[in-house]
Amino acid sequence: MKKRQRAMTRQTVDIYKWIGERIREFRMTRGGTGISQDELAEAIETTANTISRWETATYKPSVLDLEKLAGFFGVPVMLFSPKSSPPHRSARCSLRLVVCMRRISKK
Q1: SS3 sequence, 9-60?
Q2: Does the N-terminal or the C-terminal CB of the chain have fewer CB atoms within 10 Å?
Q3: Mean pLDDT, to the nearest integer, of 74-94?
Q4: Where are the domains of the chain?
Q5: Pair 100, 33: CB distance under 8 Å
Q6: Angle made by CA atoms 82, 15, 27, in degrees to the nearest 5
Q7: CATH class for domain 3-106?
């Protein structure tokens, strides 16, 4: 495999790892105490095994899956994109930002 292909493959894996971390962060901070993979799976009509595999980047969520997750968590789909915020930002900070932006837009 060529160097460029390896770099692209590694970058793709990193993107799905980042998405998985966001899913886990949103799930663990839901309602202040978090929810289980089973509860999230039931809410978006999938399995807990699938949630687990998304969080570990074993499976890749589709755009439709990300839309369901965003709808459930009440956040824009773009928050699952690495370009939307730096990877070191916690989901809690991102959620606070969304809440603040909603308050400002209502004024």
Answers
A1: HHHHHHHHHHHHHHHHHHHHHHHHCCCCHHHHHHHCCCCHHHHHHHHCCCCC
A2: C
A3: 68
A4: 3-106
A5: no
A6: 75
A7: mainly alpha
